[in-house]
Specification:
Blueprint: E1 3-5, H1 8-16, E2 28-31, H2 33-37, E3 47-51, H3 57-65, E4 68-73, H4 89-99, E5 104-108, E6 116-121, E7 124-130, E8 133-134, H5 135-144, E9 151-153, E10 165-169, H6 173-185, E11 189-193, H7 196-205, E12 210-214, H8 222-231, E13 240-244, H9 249-258, E14 262-265, H10 270-292, E15 297-300, H11 301-304, H12 306-315, E16 320-326, E17 329-336, E18 339-347, E19 350-353, H13 355-362, E20 367-372, H14 384-407, E21 413-415, H15 417-424, H16 429-439, H17 445-452, H18 456-469, E22 472-474
Parallel strand pairs: 1-2, 2-3, 3-4, 10-11, 10-12, 12-13, 13-14
Antiparallel strand pairs: 5-6, 5-9, 6-7, 7-8, 15-20, 16-17, 16-20, 17-18, 18-19, 21-22
């Protein structure tokens, strides 16, 4: 292949690779990382970036946006036979990933409602999802974002054969059967339901790693199932994928706001569901495998959940220290053979321990590590499971007390209009009257009940249900 240079640094790298500079026309020009970065508007023509050190996925994405067609070590220039001339960022990145046998989760806008994820294994793209796109199309959009760089999370400890449990809620029996077969063939344990109430019962009875739910279902729809799972401390960490006959940006953002991890259109192509499930369960699978092998591991709470991580440490009787940090403070939990040795949460000079520290931790979105190290626990120390039960009871009491406080003054509530519009389709006449009364901003529960022509107990029950589903929420503007 005939190679020219972009500048002096490129010439030195070409010489390092043992390649002579082509005279006259060339197939591609060689430059250094610095030379391309110094060209903020990019470089025309076919460009090869030669390196002397490994390149991160974030830097690779930036170089491809600036015009690089290939990235590789200078010592490999002599063996270079072909350079991708495609304009697709994804194609260039895939060639680079294949050469370097990239493995792990490539993420953009991590831990946000718009998070994009691509799963690589041995240099091959196994799955990708971003803003309703999948596969190479999703990866291309991820790489095109200029104000953020993708990051790589390792999945080297993941075991694809390890069974994870999926609860599938779909009232279309043919689609339910199809998705069940596809997921089971991929190694998942599938518990299927035909409506939201059945799915909720399954989640409460069996340890669940992910829920895949249709939106339009009888008895309890997908939005109701999602809100119920998010309102319960026992289930709020389970990732939820919503399926809909419609695909639009409003639906995607609404699902993200409600707590869903993905929103997919029911296209009849099961691959999109399988790819999404694979991406969302990989962080948990990685942690579980690390705990089994007693290897230190990274923890990203938005991806796995604090309670779930602690439960794994308890289940496998791990000994070591979990250290996390978020914008509010630092957290440290030490376990000894599955028992709680200590728990500390610190924000500036304020420090709490025990159950109070765990309550702060389970609501955190922090990141950190778990390190296996010797630790002693008091013989009377509670198991992590017992400590978590105390935390969950406390969170439930807080939620109930807060809801009761809001019910005393319904004027402090406002409707989520998008969700209330969906809810009205299946609401009873009494529920419709309560919604209408809420829109009129009555100051007391008694006045609201009177306006809706129901007794106060029934009004309270309906309002609690609306709060639980997120259809009614506190108006923070007051």
């Amino acid at each position: 292949m005939r190679l020219g240079v972009l500048g002096e640094a490129g010439l030195k790298l070409l010489q390092l690779g043992g390649v002579d500079v082509a005279e006259g026309a060339c197939d591609a020009r060689v430059c250094s990382v610095a030379e391309l970065l110094e060209s903020p508007h990019g470089v025309a023509g076919v460009v090869v970036v030669a390196t002397e050190a490994p390149v991160t996925v974030g830097l690779a994405a930036r170089l491809f946006r600036l015009g690089a067609h290939a990235i590789g070590p200078a010592t490999a220039l002599r063996a270079l036979e072909r350079v991708p001339t495609t304009t697709s960022l994804a194609d260039r990145f895939l060639a680079w990933a294949s050469a370097g046998r990239l493995s792990g989760l490539v993420k953009v806008l991590a831990n946000t409602p718009l998070e994009g994820v691509a799963l690589f294994d041995g240099g091959a793209l196994r799955a990708a999802t971003f803003c309703g796109l999948h596969g190479a199309a999703a990866l291309d959009e991820m790489l095109a974002i200029e104000d953020t760089e993708p990051t790589l999370e390792s999945t080297r400890d993941a075991d694809a054969g390890q069974r994870m449990t999926v609860v599938l809620a779909e009232d279309d029996q043919s689609l339910n059967s199809l998705l069940s077969r596809v997921l089971e063939s991929a190694g998942y344990r599938v518990l299927s339901a035909e409506n939201g109430l059945e799915a909720l019962t399954l989640v409460q009875r069996f340890p669940t790693d992910i829920v895949v739910s249709d939106i339009d279902m009888p008895r309890l729809d997908g939005w109701g199932l999602l809100r119920t799972l998010r309102s319960d401390p026992n289930t709020r960490e389970i990732p939820v994928v919503l399926l809909s006959a419609y695909e639009d940006a409003v639906g995607t953002l609404k699902a993200a706001k409600a707590g869903a991890r993905a929103y997919l259109k029911k296209s009849g192509r099961s691959r999109e569901v399988l790819d999404t499930v694979s991406i969302l369960v990989t962080p948990r699978r990685t942690v579980k495998q690390a705990v089994l092998k007693e290897r230190d591991f990274e923890v990203v709470l938005p991806a796995v959940g604090a309670q779930w991580v602690l439960s794994q440490l308890a289940e496998f009787e791990a000994t070591g220290t979990l250290e996390l940090e978020d914008e509010l403070g630092r957290y440290e939990v030490t376990v000894s053979k599955g028992a709680l040795a200590s728990a500390i949460a610190q924000n500036g000079s304020l420090r709490v321990d025990g159950t109070a520290a765990l309550e702060a931790l389970v609501t955190s979105r922090g990141t950190g590590t778990f390190s296996f190290r010797p630790a002693l626990a008091d013989p009377s120390a509670p198991s992590v499971f017992t400590a978590l039960e105390d935390v969950q009871r406390g969170l439930l009491r807080f939620g109930a007390d807060r809801a009761r406080e809001l019910l005393e003054s319904p004027r402090r509530l406002r409707l989520n209009h998008e969700l209330s519009h969906l809810y009205r389709r299946a609401a009873s006449s009494a529920e419709l009257r309560i919604i209408k009364a809420l829109e009129e901003r009555h100051p007391t529960l008694g006045e609201l009940a009177s306006r809706a022509e129901v007794d106060e107990r029934q009004a309270e029950r309906i309002l609690l249900e609306l709060l639980k589903r997120g259809i009614a929420e506190e108006d923070i503007r007051q």
